[in-house]
Amino acid sequence: MRMYDIIKKKRDGGELSTAEIDFFVQGVTDGSIPDYQISALCMAIYFRGMSVRETCDLTFAVRDSGEKVNFSAVNGIRVDKHSTGGVGDKTSLVVAPVVASYGIKVAKMSGRGLGHTGGTVDKLEAIEGMRTTLSDEEFIDQVNRIGLAIVGQSRQFAPADKKLYALRDVTATVDSMPLIAASIMGKKLAADDDCIVLDVKTGSGSFMKTVEDSKKLAKLMVDIGKNAGKKMVALITNMDRPLGYAIGNSLEVIEAVETLRGHGPEDFTEVCMTLAGYMLSLAGMGTPEEAERLARRAIQDGSALKKFAEVVAAQGGNPALIENTDLFKKAAHAHAVLSPAEGYIRAVNTEAYGLASLALGAGRNTAEDAIDYSAGIILKKKTGDFVKKGEEIAVLYSDRAETFSSAEETLLAATEIGARPEAEPLVYAIVE
Ligand code: URA
């Protein structure tokens, strides 16, 4: 079999066989297929799509591409949630400790930033000392002891996805339904959790721009998971605006800690509580409504914050930062973006907001780029807010002041000011 022929077949709209998909994933995993051919096939898949059968084959090949963590030593039911990626999406930092505070096990393997979106692992690494790589023994021991551990993908875990994810990030091939489904479900099935809640983001800041496409992606992933015997539910949530006010790694950790203290932004808190409710409910803690009340209680009584602090300490992070978020390193420079007009923020292009944050240093342009953890954006106004001419709509943070002018330009071009917009739901649909 030749990779050239597989690329050509897909480029011309053909359906790849199971053997061809296995050959591709095997070659990605063992390094025998060069990056340019992997990228070329991803681009062909981006344009030509995949049938449900091809997507399932790709998912299972990704699942089987590495070693499985043996979770048989974890006592109790394991629940996970995975987001398709958004801007300001720091939900894992809140929902995982909420759920773990009820004794449900969360063995979380998270990703890094992808395209214009942020990643949980990058955010966690903004906490000084925080280790996001644990040995399997440490990982399982921590899940058994405190109910929650959050790590990045180890080299042996779904290695095909690790390689594909990094290449897709820099070749404009992220926003493809089969590639997203295989990436997410390949990892989720390899992790072998009992229950999985998917947060499928929809709108300008997500990889799926319409509710219809998001529903299709959600259904595809829920079906793949159910066929593999998992309890699944997917929420379609609004990403036509950033979630919360903070975009950028340490800024988002600070906002997540504020949310765990019960002072989080309304939209972000709402989405977190809905997700945590579904996770608790799948784990047997009542109906989604009853479980959501439990989630709110874990915020009110401080048990979720306590759980997060425990996880940070267990993974070597500096606990003082969680007690006092003023101690996070600040960016060397700040720059206020002022409104050019008076009116309501009618709409924003959330992807552009993510790209502006990336330009400030919060994300990567190439796979090798280092991240400036303190870089990012604090929004002062969001969709639906009234703004006067000259009023601050956002503050940009970076160690490199020379990044401000292009980030400001991007942000202003992405912000529509005019008549009051219609209110939009935060959760569009539940796919079960
Ligand atoms: N998250 C993933 O893990 N993979 C994708 O392809 C997109 C979002």
Q: What do these coordinates show?
A:
Helix 2 packs across helix 8 and helix 9 runs parallel beside helix 10. The chain has 432 residues and is of the alpha/beta class. The chain is built from 17 helices and 13 strands. The chain has 3 domains: 47 residues, Transferase, Pyrimidine Nucleoside Phosphorylase, Chain C (Transferase, Pyrimidine Nucleoside Phosphorylase, Chain A, domain 3), CATH 1.20.970.10; 211 residues, 3-Layer(aba) Sandwich (Pyrimidine Nucleoside Phosphorylase, Chain A, domain 2); 89 residues, Pyrimidine nucleoside phosphorylase-like, C-terminal domain (Aldehyde Oxidoreductase, domain 3). The strands form 4 sheets. The protein has a 4-stranded mixed sheet, sandwiched between helices. The protein has a 4-stranded antiparallel sheet with strand order 6-9-11-7, with helices on both faces. A 3-stranded antiparallel sheet has the order 10-8-12. The structure holds uracil. Uracil (URA) binds next to helix 9. Uracil binds next to helix 9.
Name a few traits of the molecule.
single chain; alpha/beta; Transferase, Pyrimidine Nucleoside Phosphorylase, Chain A, domain 3; Pyrimidine Nucleoside Phosphorylase, Chain A, domain 2; Aldehyde Oxidoreductase, domain 3; four-stranded mixed beta sheet; four-stranded antiparallel beta sheet; 16% strand; globular; binds uracil
How would you sum up this structure in a few lines?
The protein has helices at 3-11, 18-30, 35-48, 52-63, 91-100, 120-124, 136-146, 159-170, 177-191, 211-227, 249-260, 266-282, 288-300, 303-314, 319-323, 350-362, 404-413; strands at 79-83, 106-110, 148-152, 195-202, 231-238, 246-247, 333-338, 343-348, 376-379, 386-387, 392-398, 415-418, 427-431. The protein is of the alpha/beta class.
